[in-house]
Design brief:
The protein is of the alpha/beta class. 38% of the residues lie in helices and 19% in strands. It has one domain: Glycoside hydrolase/deacetylase (TIM Barrel), CATH 3.20.20.370.
Length: 252
């Protein structure tokens, strides 16, 4: 039987602002990437999201991003490798503390937004992130864009790596995601999203925005939790995978 991890970015509410329906999303995923307070989230939200993940048997992951609450961590920032290293240490360490008090454990790290996309193409940034994760806990799994500089850096460092693909994003010819500020960067049809997912899992291929097919490795699929119809989309994807006899589980 084919297997795939379904991960979702959660814990992105903060203060009086509620983003997404984390409790419902937990029913359909196997891994949660929990915001660590820089691009989204706050201590109260981090604590509650960890508790919900443990309750639902969902793998706990840290989702560190740039210190850019106003831009939701999706704006590029020019930081040094040392700054990136400390950025990861600080945020992942905070989530590890919350997991610890509830008897859980952070099992993976997935950078967020612009930090993720920049590390996918910048070796020095990718290497700093991989080193920070390894130094914190060499058993942590690094989630990164499939076949990117980030996954290469993780493998070189000796980390377990999960090559990530996206349910609702389109791809460029070089395997990178189409930037959100460009047309057709987001897949809005659930049928098209499911078709893309199944092709990536079964054929290890994805059709790019230019129409050609490229090879892609899929260990984990990201479904976003902050959209209006996020829960409905997650349920449909989960059900489609079950119909195809594809088991939803954490990365082996």
């Amino acid at each position: 039987m084919l297997q795939i991890d379904l991960n979702c970015d959660l814990g992105e509410s903060f203060g009086q602002y509620t983003i997404g329906n984390d409790k419902e999303m937990m029913k359909y995923i196997s891994s949660a990437n929990i915001a660590c307070g820089f691009h989204a989230g706050d201590p109260n939200v981090m604590n509650e999201t960890v508790k919900q993940a443990i309750k639902h048997g969902v793998q706990i992951g840290a989702h560190p991003g740039f210190a850019d609450l106003q831009g939701f961590g999706r704006r590029n920032m020019n930081i040094s490798p040392d700054e990136a290293y400390h950025l990861i240490i600080y945020q992942v360490g905070a989530l590890q503390a919350f997991a610890n008090i509830h008897g859980g454990k952070v099992k993976h790290v997935k950078p967020h937004g612009a930090l993720y996309n920049m590390a996918a193409v910048q070796p020095s940034l990718a290497e700093a992130i991989a080193k920070a994760i390894y130094d914190l806990d060499s058993e942590l799994i690094l989630y990164g864009l499939a076949d990117s500089e980030l996954t290469k850096a993780g493998e070189k460092r000796g980390l377990k790596v999960a090559h990530e693909v996206f349910a609702d994003r389109t791809y460029q010819s070089d395997g990178t995601l189409t930037p959100r500020n460009q047309p057709n960067s987001i897949i809005t049809s659930i049928e098209d999203s499911i078709a893309q997912i199944l092709k990536m899992i079964k054929d290890q291929k994805v059709k790019t925005i230019h129409g050609e097919e490229i090879l892609i490795k899929a260990d984990t699929i990201c479904i976003h939790g902050d959209g209006i119809h996020a829960v409905e989309i997650a349920r449909n994807i989960h059900d489609a995978l079950r119909r195809e006899n594809i088991e939803v589980c954490t990365p082996s």
